[in-house]
Specification:
266 residues; alpha/beta; 7-stranded parallel sheet; 9 helices; 49% helix; elongated; binds zinc ion
Length: 266
């Protein structure tokens, strides 16, 4: 509501600026000067409005206690799509205090660890399928002062990550084929999450399980119950209804499952 009031305030200011412009006689040289000043005002108010809206999304994340901002980086080689790179992360870093969970869907991700650290990543997750020496990439992520995550595509067996579990902070299980948003959740992922959860519990390893792809209010409870700690949602949060309402539904599911989760960790 506060955000809406601010936006309304800016809109009223803009309307007033336009009204003054209309009143002025454009043949008058003094009026020309005033019009120039009004132009400057328009620009600066336009900028302010954008800032208010950007900070608004961030305010929603903070209010709802969203811990991570998951950032999908795609290169058009490891996956068919191209998304964004360091400059965008640098610019959103300025308005966000969330943990930046950078998911690299790129070929040979080891080349860019330092750059991603410099632009504001808190954690980097790379694909096991995209590297030759995953141990070395994990080491470099840690050297850059970041949390390390390793991810596997739906066709890669869960056992493939076992050799790295004592090194990483997180394993990301893809529940869709990586590369595009808006895909349906693959139910095979449940067994994969369960398998990894029981292996981690058995070994007593403090590694988080993150699940990415096709998550929504219909399946998030089952995903948590299978053993996920971190749930990634794109379309389910940013499409339809309001971001705030969508996040509330997710948080409700988390709270409901919290007790169960705690029980399992104890
Ligand atoms: Zn992702």
């Amino acid at each position: 509501l506060e955000l809406q009031a601010l936006i309304k305030d800016h809109e009223e200011t803009m309307a007033n600026i336009y009204r003054y412009e209309d009143i002025l006689d454009r043949r008058d040289s003094m009026a020309q000067l005033i019009i120039q000043e009004l132009d400057k005002l328009k620009k600066s108010y336009g900028k302010k409005r954008r800032t208010v809206i950007e900070n608004g999304a961030e305010a929603v994340f903070e209010e709802k206690k969203i811990e991570y901002l998951h950032i999908d980086v795609m290169d058009g080689i490891f996956v068919p799509s191209i998304s964004f790179g360091m400059p965008l992360i640098t610019s959103i870093r300025k308005t966000s205090r969330q943990f930046f969970d950078v998911h690299l869907m790129i070929a040979d991700p080891g080349r860019y660890i330092e750059e991603f650290a410099a632009c504001g990543a808190d954690g980097v997750t790379f694909h096991l399928e995209a590297v030759e020496d995953a141990h070395k990439v994990i080491e470099n992520i840690h050297k850059a002062g970041l949390k390390a995550g390793i991810s596997i595509k739906p066709a890669t067996p869960v056992e493939a990550v076992y050799p790295y579990l004592s090194e990483v902070e997180m394993v990301l299980i893809m529940s869709v084929e990586p590369g595009f948003g808006g895909q349906p959740f693959m139910p095979e992922a449940y067994d994969r999450i369960r398998q990894l959860r029981s292996f981690l519990d058995e070994k007593g390893l403090p590694v988080k399980i993150e699940v990415d792809g096709g998550l929504g209010k219909k399946n998030v409870r089952d995903v948590i119950e299978a053993g996920a700690d971190v749930c990634v949602a794109g379309s389910a949060v940013f499409k339809k209804r309001s971001i705030s309402d969508n996040i509330s539904q997710f948080m409700k599911a988390f709270r409901e499952k919290e007790a169960l989760h705690k029980e399992r960790l104890e």
